[in-house]
Amino acid sequence: MADDSTLRLGLIQTHADAGAGENLERTTALMRQAAADGAQVICTQELFLSPYFPQVESDEHFQLAESIPGPTTETLGMLAAELGVVIVASLFEKRAPGLFHNTAVVLDADGSLVGRYRKMHIPDDPRFYEKFYFTPGDLGFRVFDTRFGKLGVLICWDQWYPEAARLTALAGAEVLIYPTAIGTWQGEMELAATQHEAWRTVQRSHAITNGVFVAAVNRMGAEDELSFWGRSFVAGPDGQVLAEAGQDEAVLIVECDRAQIDTAREGWPFLRDRRIDAYGDLEKRWRDDS
User: Fold this and answer.
1) Looking at the whole model, is its pTM more than 0.90?
2) Are 119 and 156 in contact (CB under 8 A)?
3) Which residues contact 129 (CB under 8 A, 6 or more apart)?
4) Domain annotation covers residue 289
5) I need a surface site. Which of 43, 92, 133, 248 has the fewest CB within 10 A?
6) What is the rounded distance in angstroms from the CA atom of residue 268 to the CA atom of residue 265?
7) Which residues carry out catalysis?
């Protein structure tokens, strides 16, 4: 890991066409732009190689999955080594016949595959039918020690769960990175502003309560019955938004000063004051004695 006190994130916010090759080519071009602009850690949106296929349940979409390691990790690993950057990329993993995961990979600046995180929380909502495709993750909440920092990677629906953020922060993450595909279903457009503000607020809350940086990398554009928000952003350990993209394609470069982690945690000692002796009931689905 570099001694530099500043970690420079590069968030790639783009759309997705039908062809995986086109999406990979466009995304890698944006990664090159991010590296040229000084990014050290470059992150994609969720499932960046394809349109957001879980809008429908179809066996045909299983053909989009690939092995890890596989062709995409090989391509991105070579790019990471060439540019000297860390890449976090969200892929549709085929683990075995009939066994699939929504997975993020971390490639270090030498091109090596540091590891993977498999999405733990799997939604099943209108036009977000992910339970049809993805087996819940079984690797736990992980932190990846890379050349440029300790990265905690979670995925989209995970970002609504404070337990996921807390456990990843407790493992030593300096930044929580959430590859994301979130927007509003056309049948609920009257709720779009409320939904967006809730999404933004909960992630800022993770930054505050854990004293870490939080990066949300969302896709943009309309796909079938979903309108994705874009609006990728990074929040600091005090919850303030350091930078935010609009609704169009963007490469967002954000400097994160690690000293802010110490400042936030010393000023708001939430980790010190946790009552770890009193949280056993979190392992229950519900408390029937309340």
Assistant:
1) yes
2) yes
3) 54, 55, 56, 57
4) no
5) 248
6) 5
7) 46, 119, 156
